[in-house]
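Re: folding output
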Amino acid sequence: MNQGLPSSIIMVSTEEVPGRKTVKTLGVVSGSTVRAKHVGKDIFAGLKNIVGGELKAYTELLGESRDEAVQRMLQEAVGRGANAVVNVRMATSAITPGAAEILAYGTAVLVE
């Protein structure tokens, strides 16, 4: 899912990119998305809760949401002139019953 982003942008959860020197810090960047559950999938999930097992529809929804939040964060970083994002973190929070926000954030940097 590389929507127009340079393939060379680096994203790490560490404070520095291993083997690279940070030459400029460009600030905190973030990307988020808010997603709601599908009523039909919600009914199936309720049944799955009774018998147990993975809620695959929700797993897919969260995976897509994380990807979208990360892409938005990377787009902001590229817009600031970064070629890397360090200290990448993810967070989630309930917005309303049935909807959640996925947030990706980190520090945009220029590395050489």
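--- second protein (sequence, then structure) ---
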Amino acid sequence: MDALVERLYRWQRFLLPLRCLLCGAAGAKGIDLCADCAADLPRNHSCCARCALPLAIPAALCGECQRHAPPWDGAWAPFRYGWPLDRLESRYKFGADLAAGRVLSTLWQRESCPVALAQCLLTVPLHRRRLRQRGYNQALELARPLARALGLPFRHDVLQRTRSTEAQTELDAISRRRNVRGAFALRHGIELPAHVAILDDVMTTGATLAECARVLKRGGVQRVDVWALARAPSPSGG
């Protein structure tokens, strides 16, 4: 089956050559992104090891983590949320541009994970109302191929969103925490390993991932890491 999919993909690429989704130039390295635009992507190599907050100099703990330790144990966000990655992410998340999602997924798979791999990968769930509106869970579609590339078990049925919440985008940090408080729960009868990672597409204040981490730890998970495709450069900004 994989060989058939690969042949179909090559035939598609023959008929429809790769084109950069950002500038329209020829795509490179097997994705719809040219070499120049790929080089402009803001990578998050210098950051806080605990929360992945972008920093001028890498640190084990940023000032915020020293004051208030997050409920998770480690973080991985290979990119910073900024131009031009934010354009691809916006098209994928809010414009139903699945081609942009494939580019983002492939880019993530090519990055090296700086933390110990978890025993299982989970995703932040959408409320059924939001899922009906959007038609897909953007975090799940990023997580599935990433888990496959890393050889990790992937579960999308562990957490459930028990109530609909406001979109985090327009809320400040305090409002974001209040917005998601008590919004998640473990499904009954779920057994989890000691170490899991919970994945979302973008991490801003970390409020959503923090609430998920608390639920998982209350459910008996010993170590919870948070993974996001991109981390916002300031905690004042999900």
